[in-house]
Write a structure and sequence with these properties.
Strand content: under 5%
Distance between the termini: 85 Å
Low-confidence stretches: none
Number of helices: 4
Number of strands: 0
Order of helices and strands: HHHH
Radius of gyration: 34 Å
Structural class: mainly alpha
């Protein structure tokens, strides 16, 4: 009889604790929601920074002729009249292909 007196309230307390931790509005769910919120805030900040950068680029494209020229040269390969462009092969890839690989000596 004495055990039953302790088991009923103990079971009731365990039932409440289970739903407090693992329920739909439990502590575990709140923890995951907070993590999601922090990730979304980081993404929003990154998007705001990208947006600001794009706004600066738009303003530079509208007003800065040197910036516009650099974009045309870099992206489209445009050159001025009587301008000569020199293109050199990549040294690292051609040299690495022609060099023999070092060998280890076995004793």
């Amino acid at each position: 009889m004495r055990k039953r007196i302790y088991l009923i309230p103990g079971g009731f307390i365990l039932f409440i604790l289970f739903f407090t931790v693992f329920g739909e509005r439990g502590l575990l769910r709140i923890y995951h929601l907070n993590q999601d919120r922090q990730e979304l805030q980081k993404k929003a900040e990154a998007l705001k920074a990208d947006n600001e950068r794009m706004k600066r680029d738009i303003e530079a494209l509208k007003s800065d002729r040197r910036y516009l020229e650099s974009i045309a040269r870099r992206d489209f390969g445009l050159v001025r009249p009587n301008e000569v462009i020199y293109q050199f092969p990549h040294q690292q890839s051609s040299v690495a292909a022609n060099q023999p690989q070092p060998q280890t000596l076995k004793k």
